[in-house]
Design a protein that fits this description.
With 429 residues, this protein is an all-alpha fold. The protein has a single domain, classed as MFS general substrate transporter like domains (Growth Hormone, Chain: A), CATH 1.20.1250. Helices cover 81% and strands 0% of the residues. The longest helix is centred in the N-terminal third of the chain and has 31 residues. The radius of gyration is 20 Å and the shape is globular.
Length: 429
């Protein structure tokens, strides 16, 4: 089946394509395989650093807000600079954009490791460094996600997105436990140093990659952003997806941002047990990822997003009451399955409804909204925990997810398979 013959419903239902081309078929393509492996190591280092930063902040301060802001500082740049990064990804060579971001993050992580080893880090400095790394992530992400179309055939795009999600979640399953171990046998500076080294493999692969040149209609950054905004605003299907991404990000931040303090204060765990909690989350994501296409075919986008939200309601409500890491580990596992189901499904839905010429901008708008919701949620749930207590904040996040999803399912239902899917820029226009 030629790309031009692909039906919108096929492109929107990865499981149907899987039957024809295989869930792992992108691995046959050398450059996709090389970038996937290098990105796996980069994600592993990033996860180790995230564990180190979150745990270090719990030892530097008792403020739930500052602890929550560690997560927020990694996502705020995506909200603030993501759309500019999307325009850059569409206006310039995506490979070079990725290279610039990777080199910048390597340098920042190396300085962070050095200053931590010297004992010079304060809560504000730690937030500043995680914010700087977040800016690198914001610059890299739209270019990296949009570059997948330069690595694989369009028919294999859903499989490639799922495989990239698996790489990320493999890192999330191994990295936290490894990070906790490194912190326990040395200190946090080693975790930061490992992250700096992890960028090298992807930089090497990108230096050797020579993709076919894209036809670029270069425009000034802000007019280019305006084009992406107008397209997303004019697409009813995308508007509904983006609204759901905002709600998902805000609600899920209750789990992501509060987990370090949950482990330390509620579960009385160590850095290794914090790593185990994150590791079980990653294992859940890996186990679920290959089946997301089949589940989405049965439940449709609305069903799988609703199911994922309900799982997080259960998980956060349980963590608000549990007092043992052993009892909490299964809930971390099912949270990982829900996380990959939610974000992979929403990401794929955005990609299938975005023309290639403005794909970077559409993805950056999606990320800015979703991760912006996470950043605001991280601050909000931390502030609520400071005003009341941690269990109240977790229960509040659960209630928010329930109420918002009931309302949005009625007033802004997610698009059905094939609805709003485009083949190229001409279709979009």
């Amino acid at each position: 089946m030629a790309v031009a013959d692909a039906k919108p419903d096929d492109l929107d239902n990865p499981a149907e394509l899987t039957e024809r081309i295989g869930a792992f078929s992108p691995f046959r393509i050398p450059i996709f395989r090389a970038i996937w492996i290098a990105n796996l190591f980069s994600n592993l280092g990033a996860t180790i650093q995230a564990v180190g930063a979150a745990w270090m902040m719990t030892s530097l301060t008792d403020s739930h807000q500052l602890i929550g802001l560690v997560q927020a500082s990694a996502t705020v740049p995506i909200m603030l600079f993501g759309m500019i990064a999307g325009a850059i990804a569409d206006n310039f060579d995506r490979r070079r954009v990725m290279l610039s971001a990777q080199v910048g993050m390597l340098a920042t992580s190396a300085v962070l490791a050095t200053m931590t080893y010297a004992g010079l880090i304060t809560p504000i400095l730690l937030l500043a460094f995680t914010l700087t790394v977040g800016i690198g992530t914001a610059l890299n992400s739209p270019a990296w996600q949009a570059s997948v179309r330069q690595q694989v055939d369009r028919r294999e795009l859903p499989q490639a997105i799922a495989l990239n999600s698996i790489a990320f979640n493999i890192a999330r399953s191994v990295g936290p436990a490894l990070g906790g171990l490194l912190i326990s046998i040395w200190d946090v500076s080693l975790a930061f140093a490992i992250n700096a080294i992890s960028y090298c493999a992807l930089i090497f692969v990108l230096l050797r990659w020579r993709p076919e040149a894209r036809k670029v209609s270069r425009r000034p950054i802000f007019p280019a952003i305006a084009i992406g905004l107008r397209y997303c605003a004019g697409s009813l299907a995308l508007r509904r997806i983006l609204l759901r991404g905002l709600v998902v990000g805000f609600g899920l931040a209750g789990y992501q941002s509060m987990l370090p303090v949950v482990v330390r204060e509620r579960l009385h765990g160590s850095e290794i047990e914090f790593g185990l909690m994150l590791g079980m989350f990653g294992v859940g994501s890996i186990v679920a990822a290959p089946f997301i296409g089949q589940i989405r075919r049965r439940l449709r986008l609305e069903g799988i997003v609703t199911l994922g939200a309900l799982i997080f309601v259960i998980v956060m409500s349980a963590l608000a009451e549990l007092r043992s890491v052993t009892l909490a580990l299964p809930f971390a596992f099912i949270a990982g399955t829900a996380w990959v189901a939610l974000l992979t499904s929403i990401n794929t839905a955005v990609q299938m409804r975005s023309p290639d010429e403005i794909l970077g901008r559409c993805l950056s708008i999606y990320q800015a909204i979703t991760f912006g919701g996470m950043a605001i949620g991280s601050w909000a749930w931390g502030a609520i925990a400071d005003v009341r207590d941690l269990p109240f904040a977790l229960h509040s996040a659960s209630v928010f997810l329930i109420v918002s999803f009931v309302i949005l399912r009625i007033v802004a239902p997610l698009p059905k398979p094939g609805e709003g899917v485009v083949q190229d820029w001409q279709d979009a226009r």
